[in-house]
Amino acid sequence: MVAYELARRLRALPGSKGAVLVAHTGYGQEEDKAKSEAAGFAHHLVKPVGILDLQNVLQQAAH
Fold it and tell me: Which domain does 33 fall in, by range?
C-alpha cells in the first residue's frame, strides 16, 4: 500500500504537522479506515465521493 507509506513519511516530516491528509480509495471496510488513520490520514473517503462529504472535509480542513 503505497499511500499508507507516503502518509507515514509525510507525518514524520517536521513541516507536515498541520497538513490534512485525505485518503481517497475504493476500500471502505472498518479495517481499511483503521489503516488510514494509523498511517496519519485525517479523513478516509470511499469512491465515489459525494459532494457533501467532500465539502465537509474541506470545511473541517479550513478551521
Answer: 2-62
Alpha carbon dihedral 58, 60, 61, 62, in 10-degree steps, equals 90
Q: Vertex 18, ends 14 and 24: CA angle to 5°?
A: 110
Provide the whole-model pTM. 0.87
Q: What is the CATH number of the domain that holds 23?
A: 3.40.50.2300
Tell me the per-residue pLDDT of 25-52, one tens digit each, with 9 for 90 and over: 999 999 999 999 999 999 999 999 999 9
Provide the number of structural domains found in the chain: 1
Cite the DSSP H helix spans in the chain.
Answer: 2-12, 30-39, 51-62
CB 21 within 8 A of CB 40: yes
